Amino acid sequence: MSRLVHVTSGPYAPPAAARELTARSADGARLHVEVHGPERAPAVVLAHGWTCSTAFWAAQVRELAVDHRVVAYDQRGHGRTPASPACSTDALADDLEAVLTTALAPGEQAVVAGHSMGGMSVMAAAGRPAFRAHAAAVLLCSTGSSRLVAESTVLPLRPGRLRSRLTGRVLGSRAPLGPVTPLARRILKYATMGPDPTPDMVEACARIVHSCPRAVRHAWSHVLDGLDLDHAVAQLRVPVEIVVGGADRLTPPVHARSLAAALPNCLGVIELPGVGHMTPVEAPGPVTGRIRSLAAARIPAVPAVEESA
């Protein structure tokens, strides 16, 4: 299980959950789930990406929990969810289904937002019964369905076999990330963020990413390297909005355009100039705003509880 390391003050410090749940996946894996906000409010489910945790969504949770019920969970081996030998897109889909059925009432619908590997979880689960029963709309942030290594521009080389081979080795490295040092912050900023993130954005991301165990990071890197969810995109039939950073080196805008072309009901692509891969942290206002707008448009209003006479 990841060491719980994240910032403890400022806008990216994760707020305390109102409730904590455990969702049990199809293979028995136990997933840590946090619930924030009023019980009868419109529901939002947040799925984080590779090497991250629920802390990654701190800015969204803080704003949305005022008038939404926000459900966030840790992917396998991340945050407070134990590692599992099962690392696959099927496991990602199983886990998202388990969270939806555990945290939501039967028939209750939610906006599901996925960042990076969280977006891949959404795509993998698109044809599953629980996903179709509970997903009213989707926000995909900084993600793709295939060719992640081939399209990555983390290494400043011309596209081709050499760049893909070297990128795969870098992203799949077993080397420990070590403590969060000034050099570590610079490397992480270059690889995952735009040119001008604030210091607190860099610090928040560095602490979250560095807390992910290297064995977990390595295991999931193989899944991302061989990712092919193109067939699943057509199954994602609910309304979908896409957010991507114009300076994203890990999942460049080419992925967003490909998804938009393949999705049955794409509401549009929002490209954020100067923003990198960590869109929920780098652009908290636009990301939170899109989730809020989707919830307002797509989730039926919850009837008020009548008081006894």
What does this protein look like?
It comes from Streptomyces pimonensis. One of its GO terms (molecular function) is hydrolase activity. This is Alpha/beta hydrolase. InterPro entries: AB_hydrolase_1, AB_hydrolase_fold. This protein has 309 residues and is α/β, with parallel strands linked by helices. The chain is 39% helix and 16% strand. It has an eight-stranded mixed β-sheet with strand order 1-2-4-3-5-6-7-8, sandwiched between helices. Helix 2 (89-103) packs across helix 3 and helix 7 crosses helix 8. Strand 7, helix 11 and strand 8 (266-272) form a beta-alpha-beta unit.
How do the strands and helices of this protein lay out in sequence?
Layout: E1 19-24, E2 30-36, E3 43-47, H1 58-64, E4 69-73, H2 89-103, E5 110-115, H3 117-125, H4 129-134, E6 135-141, H5 148-151, H6 161-171, H7 182-192, H8 199-210, H9 214-225, H10 230-233, E7 240-245, H11 253-262, E8 266-272, H12 279-282, H13 284-298
Parallel strand pairs: 3-4, 3-5, 5-6, 6-7, 7-8
Antiparallel strand pairs: 1-2, 2-4
Helix pairs in contact: 1-13, 2-3, 7-8
GO molecular function: hydrolase activity
Organism: Streptomyces pimonensis
Protein name: Alpha/beta hydrolase
